[in-house]
Amino acid sequence: MVWVLVLLGVVALAGGMLLFYMFNQAKQENIVEQTLAFPEFPSSFGEVRIFFISDIHRRKIDPSFIKKIKNIDLVVIGGDLTEKKVPFEQVEENIQQLKKLGLIFFVWGNNDYEVEHHELDSLLLHHGVKILDNKSYLFESDTGDKLEVLGVDDLVHERDRLDVALEETTGESFKILVSHEPEIVEKFTEKEGISLVLSGHTHGGQIRIFGFGPHEKGRITHLPYTTQLISNGFGTSLVPFRLGAPPETHILTITTRAR
Asked: What is the model's pLDDT at position 42?
């Protein structure tokens, strides 16, 4: 009987330690820095540095974290900025922190529609956030080269219209597509000329047991017709734990490569 109690105590202690580890991993503030070179990227832009953050959910963005991030041209929020029961005051504080880095672009995620989305839309517009709900945004260099950032609305709610987002784009521009759900890559081919796709949603599986999880870990994939970044995301859903899929944000340096 004593040995049974000891064994139960050991199991309980190990379980508690594992939960503590998973809780702490979920609170990490990881920044993954990567350089992506494309032969079609216009050299007149030099380098473009993008800070990409997705799936914030219930997390608060600390000012000390923002201070670590330097020389950003564009900030992209890849959906799930919030979810139900998150105070709008907290969402606004997070936006204010991200505004310190540069111009913000935002696409809707499925959990963003759990809140009063008209109020969220108003809050974003108040802070000058560019909402890419099936829209595109054009940058033009001094030499006339074009860079376009496109975004589609949430696929889960069947609000995505990539065709609409592409309507005002030009064929010769370098195109970056932002979609909360990674499956957007199944809806276009090389003819659309989209060079880079930024996505989140999967959390990298969030909790992976012996390396296995409900989704693959976040990574960059080079497809025949585009390059896609799927992020593990910054926050968590359902439970505030992570295992084997640590949270991440990204600094992407986009540059040209000799053809």
From this structure: 96
